[in-house]
Write a structure and sequence with these properties.
- By secondary structure, the chain is of the alpha+beta class.
- It folds into 3 domains: 161 residues, no CATH class; 101 residues, no CATH class; 104 residues, Immunoglobulins (Immunoglobulin-like).
- The chain is built from 18 helices and 16 strands.
- A hairpin with a 5-residue loop joins strand 15 and strand 16.
- The longest helix has 23 residues.
- The protein starts with 31 loop residues before the first helix and ends with a strand.
């Protein structure tokens, strides 16, 4: 059997050299950036909880009703058949992500992603409160089980259930969700199962998977490599100023007199930036895919620089080109380049197409189809009967009744079992009907105009080809 050698460096920042899980227990650096992120994070949490409760035009502000294939955004409801609008909306989201990344790197991950926001400002503070400092947490790791860790998991479980219900409110109406919560599980086993599975997934994510979501599961980190360039603003270490690293040395009076040159850079190799990183990387090794731009390393390094009376900014937001060219870039140089001009142009075009498609969208989608079976039937009376099917998809937010009539066809008879046809809001209904006429009036074929009118905003004329002997 061949022996496997232990690698000299980690394959992933969240793995030890022997391949075991490296648990991330970052030390909090409560600096200026952290305070701004905390305000932003709690504002986003409040917004995340409130959005399903806010009504716009009698509808939830956001509702992704997958079973009914309806997607409501701030009063406008899109259906699965609105493929052009949905496609343009997704393209707009993707281009927005591309633009933000090109300008500010992985800022979304560190400042706006729900995974990071809830982990850093809800779950991890609870962990520090219950388990204590880094050393205390490491001691608990050595134990198989402890009361403090069980207490933490219990609180995590409760929070996971709450968070799962908030998350599901984006996919199920709040009224339905409240009914699921307040009634016996036997009344809605499917809904109870959905809530239970989602709660378990939330608990596993924040109690166990944690940073692996950002490092392993999320595809955004891999996209970073093609979306960034050397002028993108990212969290970086100024190697020109910091290298070579070394402990802080005090010069003697004689050395100061002769103007001795300091042999080390500003980096004192304290590793504060490493201990505070939630994904376990060393920012001094350059830009890495695992970096989520949380700026904790900036706050940690700035605190050290303050203590040793050095200027802040050894670790800062900047561009790789600044380090390579040893120059300070202006905001204009950061913002103006080919890709940061093409992405907004693309967004402008997509936005225009979206608005155009939205204005052309009617309150209902109406189609006429041929009946199933024989295309026509010659009746005992000699008249010819064609079977039609009218399919109506009500896009509006209220119920409608659709009247079906023939246009300029007094020699033909339209037979509709239910006329007008009642269609509830969001409902798709197919109604069968017959068109009867003399064989001479239909001949071998005749074009027919069918008018569908809801009496308010929709009046659509459909052309259908009648067939005869």
């Amino acid at each position: 059997m061949s022996e496997f050698q232990t690698p000299n460096e980690r394959v992933l920042s969240t793995l030890n050299l022997d391949g075991t899980r490296r648990w991330m227990r970052p030390v909090l650096a409560a600096g200026d950036f952290w305070k701004k992120r905390m305000i932003t994070g709690w504002a986003l949490i409040a917004l995340f909880v409130a959005l399903p409760l806010i009504q716009v035009g009698g509808k939830p502000s956001i509702l992704l009703d997958l079973p009914r294939r309806e997607f409501t955004f701030f009063g406008a409801t899109l259906l699965a058949t609105d493929t052009v609008l949905l496609m343009l909306g997704l393209l707009g989201i993707f281009l927005s992500v591309f633009l933000i990344t090109a300008l500010f790197g992985r800022a979304w991950c560190g400042w706006g992603c729900p995974q990071t926001v809830y982990m850093e400002f809800v779950f991890r503070p609870i962990e520090r409160l219950i388990e204590g400092s880094l050393k205390d947490q490491e001691k608990l790791d050595a134990k198989k089980l402890s009361g403090r860790r069980v207490l933490k998991w219990a609180i995590y479980a409760v929070l996971s259930v709450v968070l799962a219900n908030v998350f599901l409110a984006y996919f199920v109406r709040v009224e339905t969700l409240v009914h699921w919560i307040t009634s016996a599980p036997s009344e809605h086993p499917e809904g109870f199962a959905v809530v239970g599975i989602t709660s378990v997934m939330m608990f596993i994510d924040f109690a166990w998977f944690r940073d692996q979501m950002c490092v392993v599961a999320c595809p955004y980190a891999r996209l970073q490599s093609v979306l960034l360039d050397k002028r993108s603003l990212v969290v970086l270490y100024d190697s020109n100023r910091g290298e070579p690293r070394g402990k802080l040395q005090r010069k003697s009076v004689d050395e100061l007199a002769i103007g001795a040159v300091q042999e080390v850079g500003d980096c004192v190799d304290c590793a504060a930036c490493v201990r505070t990183c939630p994904t376990g990387i060393d920012i001094r090794n350059g830009l890495q895919l695992e970096c989520i731009s949380c700026t904790q390393c900036i706050d940690a390094c700035d605190a050290v620089m303050d203590k040793i009376k050095k200027p802040r900014g050894l670790v800062r937001y900047g561009a790789q080109q600044e380090i390579e060219d040893k120059v300070s870039m202006s905001a204009k140089h950061h913002l103006l380049r080919v890709r940061t001009a093409l992405y907004p142009l693309g967004l402008l075009i997509i936005g225009g197409l979206f608005l155009f498609a939205l204005t052309k969208r009617t309150n209902a989608e109406v189609n006429v189809l041929r009946g199933i079976g024989a295309p026509f039937v010659v009746m005992d009376s000699g008249d010819v009967q064609n079977t039609l099917r009218v399919k109506i998809h009500n896009h509006s937010g209220k119920d409608h009744a659709y009247q079906v009539t023939l246009n300029n066809a007094s020699d033909l008879q339209l037979v509709v079992p239910n006329n007008p046809i009642p269609v509830k809001a969001g409902e798709l209904r197919t109604e069968g009907m017959f068109v009867i006429g003399k064989a001479a009036a239909i001949g071998r074929g005749r074009d027919l105009e069918l008018v569908v009118d809801d009496g308010e905003t929709l009046k659509k004329t459909l052309t259908f080809r009648l067939l005869g002997p």
